[in-house]
Amino acid sequence: MFSNLRNNDKIYKNLYNGEWIESSSQKLIEIFSPVDGSSLGKVQAMTTEEVDMAIKNTKEALKSWQETSLNERVDIIYKAANILEENSEEIATLMMMEISKDKKSCVSEVVRTADLLRFTADTAKSMQGEALSGDSFPGGSKSKMAFVSREPLGTVLAIAPFNYPINLSASKIGPAIVAGNTVILKPPTQGSLSALCLAEVFNKAGLPAGVLNTVTGRGSEIGDYLISHEGINFINFTGSTAVGQHIASLSKMVPLLLELGGKDAAIILEDANLEEAATNIVNGAYSYSGQRCTAVKRILTFDSVADKLIPLLKEKIEKLKVGNPAEDGVVITPLIDNKSADFVEGLIKDAKDSGATLVTGGTRENNTIYPTLFDNVTTDMRLAWEEPFGPVLPLIRVSSIDEAIEIANKSEYGLQSSVFTQDIDKAFYIAKKLEVGTVQINNKTERGPDHYPFLGVKSSGMGTQGIRYSIEAMSRPKAIVLNIK
Ligand code: NAP
Ligand code: G3H
């Protein structure tokens, strides 16, 4: 299905005006697998002239795309969902090698994305405009009537991170195109081979030429040119806080949707079901080796709870299978690159040197970090505040619920938090005070279901994703006012 994306030398092309084309730059970026170092192919570092062409082409396509019926647009999205699902095995196998995610999770990312696309189409069909009578406002009159509909914004720049190259590309492309926009997809470099397959899925589904074009190349080289390009009308970015802040500082009068880093806290109260809490925390903190924005990234609890929780966590963590993502049941896989492993190792060293208690793990083999748990982490340690994006979890002991809330809120991040308790009043007391986008009661922090609003506050983001919210973010209301004489 995807052979036309690449030539015989495994050079991946870019989707431009409905065709897969090679760059004139002849500058290639080789994609090596973090699993075994094998070469998976090469992507092209596109030139600024080619970026101009790609954006200009989306503008031309926009003229007719925004005039197509919603029915036509959703049909293409349903087709894309089916094609994606039919090819889940092939895409997942490539993704597994490209981003070192275990095979089962790769398949479920693809299938979840097909569901997300179908739900996007369903939602778009049920989104109604409205008619507003003027007389509900003081001094207004029944002879004024506003017909409010939604209009596309133009060309959306979709920038995705490495950890969900299919899902976090499609969650931008689907809502953008159903709203009548055209899209430039800038995939993560490590993850671009998978994301280019997604572009081909839309192409095969019959998306008209130029509605989706791809731009490959390193963000550090081509990124600034893209985000400050005058042809871009909306930037939908998921990635690190550092790059998100950089984008916000460079963009001019262009609306932004930013999904950034997190330091999600799990607050465990004395009456919690500790067995259940431990299972949730281990799943939440260590799946895909902790490389999820919503991973549980710190535990806040009391001495009395910690003394019982730590042995439960230790037992479960030590059962986690470490290894090659192709193996059945593996959870801890090599991190995306050595630089990330160096960073996580630095956090582990700082915690050890600063007197935290290493409960389990703490070791490294190449870019694999063994699942690590620290007890007695204090607020002067880096691990209390920094996002590891790796399998290391700190437990911070607190003496009251209010202290837990205070430490949770002191973080620069505000993506999600969890509260584990049987007491619904306490759960709501804490949930209301936490400065985050979402609070999970008696569950790990997680994004789905994908139609829920998903947002971060403070350094965790700006704007709201989630199917209906994403469609709304990438469109604007237009009022036509009828004045009856
Ligand atoms: P990243 O380094 O910030 O990269 C994200 C994307 O931005 C990549 O496509 C990257 O391209 C591109 N980029 C880099 N510099 C750019 C520039 N100057 N202009 C435009 N684009 C640029 O993040 P990552 O390492 O892929 O992902 C991990 C981070 O993402 C973590 O912090 C995680 O918490 C966060 N994340 C957040 C969410 C959420 O929903 N809140 C979801 C997933 C991940 P290259 O790959 O070419 O560098
Ligand atoms: O990495 C960020 C993803 O949006 C997290 O999604 O909670 O379903 O793993 P997830």
From TrEMBL:
It is an enzyme of class 1 (oxidoreductase). Its EC number is 1.2.1.9. Transmembrane segments: none annotated. The active site is at E259. Signal peptide: none annotated. Pfam families: Aldedh. It comes from the Bacteria. GO terms for molecular function: glyceraldehyde-3-phosphate dehydrogenase (NADP+) (non-phosphorylating) activity; lactaldehyde dehydrogenase (NAD+) activity. Residues 20-480 form the Aldehyde dehydrogenase domain. The keyword NADP applies. InterPro entries: Ald_DH/histidinol_DH (IPR016161), Ald_DH_C (IPR016163), Ald_DH_CS_CYS (IPR016160), Ald_DH_CS_GLU (IPR029510), Ald_DH_N (IPR016162), Aldehyde_DH_dom (IPR015590), ALDH-related_metabolic_enz (IPR051020). Keywords: NADP, Oxidoreductase. Belongs to the aldehyde dehydrogenase family. PANTHER family: ALDEHYDE DEHYDROGENASE. This is NADP-dependent glyceraldehyde-3-phosphate dehydrogenase. It comes from Clostridium bornimense.
